[in-house]
Amino acid sequence: MKKNADVVIIGGGIVGNSAAYYLAKRGIKNVIVLEESKSIGHGGSSRNGGGVRQSGRDERELPYAIYSVEKFWPNLSEELGMDVEYFQSGNLRLGKTEAHMKKLQNLVDKAQKLGLDVRMIDGKEVKELCPYLSDDIIGASWCPTDGHANPMLATLAYYKRAIELGVEFYTEAKVTAIKKFHGKARQVILEDGTIFEGENIILAAGYESREIARTVGIDIPMTRYFEEALVTEMQISMFDMMLGTADADFYGHQCKHGSFVFGSESGLEEANDMKLDDLRTSSLTMSAGCRAVMGYIPVLKDANIVRSWGGWLDLSIDGVPVISHIDEVPGLILACAFTGHGFGTAPAVGYMLAQMVEGKKTAVDITALRYDRFKSLR
User: Fold this and answer.
1) Are residues 165 and 174 in contact, defined by beta-carbon separation less than 8 angstroms?
2) Which domains does the chain show, CATH number per domain?
3) Strands 31-34 and 4-10
4) What is the dihedral of CA 275, 278, 283, 287, to 10 degrees?
5) Exposure pattern of 114-124 as b/e (b: 16+ CB <10 Å)?
6) Residue 46's closest CA among 157, 176, 173?
7) What does the mean pLDDT of the chain come to?
8) What is the pLDDT of residues 211-252, one digit of tens each?
9) What is the pLDDT of residues 174-185, one digit of tens each?
């Protein structure tokens, strides 16, 4: 087991894996990735709905979301040597009430100012784009450059290519602490006492990042949030765009093989007190998601559910992630609190993390995502 590296990455999800790949591609091949579970991408990276969207994002996220779509996703399958099932077929964010339209219009106005190709459409145009949707829909926002991909395949594709370039991965490597030497982050300590050393440490471990960062005196203001997803049996080909709603009660798309994948919310998620290793779905919350889907796509009312799953989000207190050097802890880079938005932007984030390790200016300005933005309100 190699225990010394130029970069130690904590977290084997798509952010950590993409960072490892882009580091190796840029010539920094002495990289170690530590993953707590037995499998790579076991957390949110393989449990999300696969959205690759720019629309509906916070203005602080939108520039690098656009960069990810323009620079990386269209050619990612070819670059990584694996079909990640990326489809750039657009995103309809649906609404049924005037309140929904007002909310969507506000998002569209902000996104257009930052250069995104997105616009409002009426119910008639919604039905022209997707005739299978409910007649109750009065309008939507439409972003033709949004899309979706397969989260598990994309995560594993980065892992595979990183290994081919010399990166070393260790699973069942639960990190309990980071240790400083002479004021600089230097060591990563596992639960079994194993110690890894790195010139740079990237912390990209989802919600678990909070406890790990606390070991060097850094507290990331975030909470955990349990979200669920389901897959239907295969259906006839209906549409290939991504769907969402103004109230975010569900989102999803039809997969390449015909099944639909939907993520959903019931409004009870923040009351969930399960342990982080408990990933069971609930009949109470899952049924709420099914009702939401049927309310917008009535043709699926008789579709059988093949399976369902859940996963934990690392929810930032202000809704956007922390991607940042830490002035108080030189050598440590945070990449966490993605608030459920980490998958679609992961190629750009991994690329920028590699630039940060090299001490270079990031491709997109992410100053607004610095850790030191958090200030006490009193």
Assistant:
1) no
2) 4-49+152-221+319-373 (3.50.50.60), 91-144+223-316 (3.30.9.10)
3) parallel
4) 90
5) eebebebeebe
6) 157
7) 93
8) 999 999 999 999 988 888 899 999 999 999 999 999 888 999
9) 999 999 999 999
Decide the pairing of beta strands 332-336 and 195-203. parallel
In three-state secondary structure terms, 19 is helix
- The residue whose two tokens read 């850790």 is 371
164 Cβ partners below 8 Å, 6+ apart?
none
- Residue 268 has a pLDDT of 67
Number of C-beta neighbours around residue 176 at 10 A? 14
Yes or no: say if 20 and 162 are a contact pair by the CB < 8 Å rule. yes
pLDDT digits 0-9 by tens, 263-296: 887 666 666 677 878 888 877 778 888 999 999 9
* Run of H or E including 223: strand 222-232
Dist. CA 126–CA 165, nearest whole Å: 45
Question: What whole-number distance in Å separates Cα of residue 251 and Cα of residue 53?
Answer: 11
Closest C-alpha to 168, from 17, 337, 361: 17
Cβ–Cβ < 8 Å for 137, 298: no
- Residues ≥6 apart with Cβ < 8 Å to 132: 238, 239, 297, 299
Q: What does DSSP assign to residue 303?
A: P
